[in-house]
Amino acid sequence: MKNYYLVLLVALFFSTNTKAANITKFIIQSQFLSNSTSLNVKPTEKTPFNVDVTLTRDLKSYGYENVDWILTVVFQKNGEPDLELSTPKAINGNDFIGGFMDFTVNATLPVGKTGGVVILKYSYIFYNNEGVPISNSRSIGVTNTSYKASIPVTPPPSAGFNIQNARLFMANPSGYDLRKADYLSGGQRNFGEQVWANIQGMTSLNGYLYVVQANNLHKVDKEGNFTLIGELGIWKNTEAVTSSTNGYLYIVQNSRIHKVDPTTGTYSILGNPEWANTDAIVAYNGYLFLAENGYLYKVNENTGTYIQLNDAEWAGTQGMASGADGWIYVVQNGYLHRVNAESGAFEVLGGHEWPNTNIKGVAFYDNSVYILQNYSLHRVNKVTGAFTVLGNREYSNSCHLTVL
User: Fold this and answer.
1) May I ask the CATH architecture of the domain 4-148?
2) What CA–CA distance (Å, rounded) separates 356 from 292?
3) Which of 140, 233, 251, 321: CA 20 to 30 A from 299?
4) Domains of the chain: which residue ranges?
5) Any idea which architecture 163-403 has in CATH?
6) Is this structure's pTM higher than 0.90?
7) Structure confidence by residue, pLDDT tens digits, 235-252
């Protein structure tokens, strides 16, 4: 069973005229959340997490406001004394650069703490408009943002799920989980206990998933166990991710294609051109295929040299897959297209429209195209475009469909 702390997030409103400062941010970092409102709690051990805080101050006639604050992350529960989860942090005017101060607080939730709230508690000294303390007595306050504890049950696998057929993998941003799906029945389940908030890209290579999340590259096995690969925090603004049979990952980030060693995370920048606004990327037969700025390009995966594959308009490409059969499959402008990887010639498959296909929700497996769209997983005939809806309508917002 996966345990959570459900978080009820209330907008922050603070008095700005009396405290000689104002808290304008109090959030738990996304890698410690199981969704946008839930702290990912370890059921049998302590749960460490980090909180980001911003404290601001105004300009007065005498300069910036004087500040004398002490802040602590605490757990509150009716009938119990407040439990400090972090070391109290003292802040004065010397800690500021100008009018604001950003900092991170390390906190730890003990085992078994449920039914209460996690908040930021603070004390401060009042100053008058001349910057003189009104009193040496400290006033006490808490943030309006509170994190309410409960333990929901992890849903069981959906009907028809067969672990032997779990070859389709995807992100589930609604629950901040990874999912595995049966490619025959469409049954699915979540896997692994790691939090996967804000996944930026995902692909597979040699029996592992490679996931860019929280600006880091992760190597993930089929059970959800993971290791961090390479330097931390360097993959901000990742736009697209793929892998090639040559054994490398390719990550489009900061308008460049990076050729990445999946073991060490070391990389080189491929070629010279900028690849801003890349919608999708796949690899096939020694080349990368990119939908970028409304065009489809074919890029040598070793040299970075490239050609425009055809003159068609590919703006708004929602997903792309390489079929290992000489074709690239592209969902764009609400239609599924089959593009010849050599000539660039293309055709629309079938008469069905695919509007609002989930982000990068296209994959190729077992001689079929798989598409996430309209809350459902579809298996599509690669020649005729005829399709079958698999499983139940339980794929809302699922994205980054990948085969492993």
Assistant:
1) Sandwich (2.60)
2) 19
3) 233
4) 4-148, 163-403
5) 7 Propeller (2.130)
6) no
7) 999 999 999 999 999 999
